């Protein structure tokens, strides 16, 4: 592990693209990359997760942000991405360093081997003094299979590289206890429990895909990975270092002490639910007591169409999420096994395999600081035939 401190900086679309002309805001970009140059000299490794590609490409497809559909946005991303990266590259070169683009999809982040490959690529870029710019590959992702916002993508990158800080630059100073336009709105300087503020975070900008809600989800994911999140307005002069030096207003989301293992953090911090299981209460009680395993006889119902190796969300019969774990069987196989408890697995599946649906080393109980997901209401299959 490098002795250099690591920062992931997320830049919102409204900071990079003029909302009326949908052109680059070069003044902000120069201030940002100049500040990063100074931070690099001070011993920081920096990763950018940058929005803006779709916004910058909308002129090319003759669409406004409000009227663009998914296909328009994919086409706009194809046009805007080279504009954005070319600008980053030129401005960074003026300040004496090189950028490298890392394009990812939801599958790359959620699949363990791809996740590690991305981490290794970023590490090698650091070794060569190159600043990674991480973007979702919006040209090939649809609404159903995309990360959906760069806030949570940035949090996953922060976990990936064991960052010290996740800095989210946006169009507001930070989090308020209500809409900041309302009389009496109070600024929140420090957050320990993200869940306390979810109800006041449902607004989004015209250009962006995420509002303060996604920033709170990102902060929670970063907390679990031992990374502090700082949310602040994106200004031109020293937009990052002025926050680190506590020279201007920002919201600080406190990290949760020493993080769990990288494996446990990866298992628990999901961007999308592949599937889920509802278990009998006696099995949940045993898991809470340390007996971390899921057998086919423990299953009450199965949700979703998942594959072997997917991470499942585990619920009790009161629809409370309790754990997450890597499944050894697909949803069809799991259903078959749970409905025929008296038959050997080899006879049911046609091959020899273990008896555990989820093994102890691949199962993690959720802690109080994790944000639970509601139990799915669609694609429910009861085990009873």
Automatic annotation (TrEMBL):
SMART domains: PUA. Keywords: Amino-acid biosynthesis, ATP-binding, Cytoplasm, Kinase, Nucleotide-binding, Proline biosynthesis, Transferase. Transmembrane segments: none annotated. Substrate binds at residues 51, 138, 150. Its EC number is 2.7.2.11. One of its GO terms (molecular function) is ATP binding. It comes from the Bacteria. InterPro entries: AceGlu_kinase-like_sf (IPR036393), Asp/Glu/Uridylate_kinase (IPR001048), G5K_ProB (IPR041739), Glu/AcGlu_kinase (IPR001057), Glu_5kinase (IPR011529), Glu_5kinase/COase_Synthase (IPR005715), Glutamate_5-kinase_CS (IPR019797), PUA (IPR002478). The keyword Transcription does not apply. Residues 275-358 form the PUA domain. GO terms for cellular component: cytosol. The keyword Kinase applies. Pathway: Amino-acid biosynthesis; L-proline biosynthesis; L-glutamate 5-semialdehyde from L-glutamate: step 1/2. HAMAP family: ProB. Catalyzes the transfer of a phosphate group to glutamate to form L-glutamate 5-phosphate. Belongs to the glutamate 5-kinase family. This is Glutamate 5-kinase.
């Amino acid at each position: 592990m490098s002795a250099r401190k690591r920062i992931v900086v997320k830049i919102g679309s409204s900071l990079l693209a003029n909302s009326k002309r949908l052109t680059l805001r070069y003044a902000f970009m120069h201030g940002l990359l100049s500040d990063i140059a100074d931070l690099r000299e001070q011993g920081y490794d920096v990763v950018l997760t940058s929005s803006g590609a779709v916004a910058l490409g909308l002129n090319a497809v003759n669409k406004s942000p409000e009227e663009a559909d998914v296909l328009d946005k994919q086409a706009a991303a194809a046009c805007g991405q080279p504009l954005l990266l070319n600008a980053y590259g030129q401005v960074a070169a003026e300040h004496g360093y090189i950028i490298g683009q890392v394009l990812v999809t939801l599958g790359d982040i959620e699949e363990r081997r791809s996740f590690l490959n991305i981490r290794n690529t970023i590490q090698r870029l650091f070794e060569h003094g190159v600043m990674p710019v991480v973007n979702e590959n919006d040209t090939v992702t649809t609404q159903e299979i995309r990360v959906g916002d760069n806030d949570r993508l940035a949090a996953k990158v922060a976990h990936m590289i064991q960052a010290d800080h996740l800095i989210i630059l946006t169009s507001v100073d930070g989090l308020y206890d209500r809409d900041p336009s309302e009389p009496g709105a109070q600024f929140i300087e420090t957050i320990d429990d993200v869940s306390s503020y979810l109800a006041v975070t449902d607004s989004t900008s015209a250009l962006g895909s995420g509002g303060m809600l996604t920033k709170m989800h990102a902060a929670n994911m970063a907390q679990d990975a031992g990374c502090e999140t700082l949310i602040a307005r994106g200004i031109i002069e020293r937009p990052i270092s002025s926050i680190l030096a506590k020279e201007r207003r920002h919201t600080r989301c406190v990290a949760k002490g020493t993080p769990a293992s990288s494996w446990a953090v990866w298992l628990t911090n999901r961007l999308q639910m592949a599937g889920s299981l509802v278990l009998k209460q006696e099995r949940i009680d045993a898991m809470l007591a340390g007996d971390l395993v899921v057998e086919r006889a423990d299953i009450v119902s199965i949700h979703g169409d998942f594959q072997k190796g997917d991470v499942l969300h585990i619920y009790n019969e009161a629809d409370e999420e309790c754990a997450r774990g890597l499944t050894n069987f697909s949803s069809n196989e799991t259903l078959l096994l749970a409905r025929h408890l008296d038959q050997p697995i080899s006879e049911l599946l046609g091959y020899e395999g273990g008896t555990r649906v989820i093994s102890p080393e691949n199962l993690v109980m959720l802690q109080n600081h994790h944000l639970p997901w509601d139990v799915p209401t669609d694609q429910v299959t009861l085990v009873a035939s």
